[in-house]
Design goal:
With about 120 residues, the protein is mainly alpha-helical. Helix content is about 60%, strand content about 0%.
Length: about 120
């Protein structure tokens, strides 16, 4: 029998990949868990889940349903990100400044055409 050093011992399943379930799969599991004629333990073993996973799925379904049902009817407002908002705000300030400059120029031109004098 040969001795193996710790570096030669094959690693067990410590590097198993994390499994991500799609929303449809989670909802399917939720519906199956809700049916009274199927045992939940069998479903969990088949899917490779723990009871805490099922509790988390149930909570997500509840939160999603409450969020969707609390939405007000009608058209949804589009959210604007802060960078776009700041850009539009700067553009509006620039236009306001330009409008003020044009108002001053208009006042000056009116004085000139109405016989106003610069010497006064």
């Amino acid at each position: 029998m040969t001795k193996t050093t710790p570096s030669e011992v094959p690693e067990k399943a410590s590097k198993t990949k994390r499994r991500f379930l799609t929303a449809e799969k989670k909802f399917q599991i939720y519906l199956e868990a809700q049916s009274p004629n199927k045992p939940v333990g069998e479903l969990l073993r088949r899917e490779g889940l723990f009871s805490t996973d099922l509790a988390r799925i149930r909570q997500q379904v509840k939160e999603g349903a409450l969020q969707r049902l609390s939405a007000k009817p009608g058209r949804k407002r589009a959210a604007v990100d802060t960078s776009a908002y700041d850009a539009i705000k700067r553009e509006l300030q620039d236009k306001d400044r330009a409008m003020a400059d044009l108002a001053v120029e208009l006042a000056i031109l009116r004085k000139k055409t109405n016989g106003g004098s610069w010497d006064r």
